[in-house]
Amino acid sequence: MATAATDSRTGADEGATVRARLHGMWSSVAAAWEANAAFVDARGAHLTERMLELVRPVPGERVLELACGTGGPGLEAARLVAPGGKVVVSDVAAEMTAIAAHRAAERGLGGVTARVLDLEEIDEPDDSFDVVLCREGLMLVPEPGRASREISRVLRPGGRAAISVWGPRERNPWLAVVFDVAAARLGTPVPPPGIPQPFSLDDPRHLEAVLTGAGLTGVAVEAIEVPYRAASIDEWWERTAALAGPLARRLAELPAAVATALRDDARRAIAAYEAPDGLEIPGVALLAVASA
After folding, report:
1. 186-210: per-residue pLDDT in tens?
2. Collapsing DSSP states into helix, strand and coil, what is residue 282?
3. CATH code at position 152
4. In the chain, what is the greatest distance between 2 CA atoms, to the nearest angstrom?
5. How many domains would you assign to the chain?
């Protein structure tokens, strides 16, 4: 009979395996994120603006961006905390942090440091930041509660956090369509069971409960429209498939005939959002603001 210690060890090993797999997948799509950094920034500009408006970074403060990808919100915050402030842009994928660091240097932003940090185990001291930013990252970790406790820990008393996740699947067809057609064509759930997925925190009450349970206070959640615009269906498909983290690798490994059929399925499904000048696809994020 298995003992509790054995069960605990097995669970820990499985969790480590999932995390290693996820980290490798995000590293593998870093080049695609770099190629599409301008699009990611433009699409998320309104959301980033609202995040910074809510947490109000001021000169001299220390800001931590988690799951930074190519560094959009953190780089914008760097302008607000100058002079004298510091920004750490971080991601679990070293390839992503290298891109963010390069973009900061290109923009001449001083006071920006790039670090490889895990959302679920942030290698920073307690009470070390005035502001924490996390755009579209918390829902992609195995244990969002654990990550939220880490956010609470590194915030100074009175520090502020702005955390966004994707809203309900049905309100984000720009990605839901890809998942739906892939699941139908492949005959398996997409994303697969056991893998954190973009819509895992899509209920405002659930998101609030996760953050409150981590010790954060004054949690307020609002919905932000984040539409997806593309010049053509092909542009939408290529970009979304390339940026979609765990899904991107799976799509890239498909036999050519299956990949072509899946793409044709997606074209038909997304055609409902065609406009005179391209695609206009709805998108909604949930933005939570909280204090330590």
Report:
1. 898 888 777 888 999 999 999 999 9
2. coil
3. 3.40.50.150
4. 65
5. 1
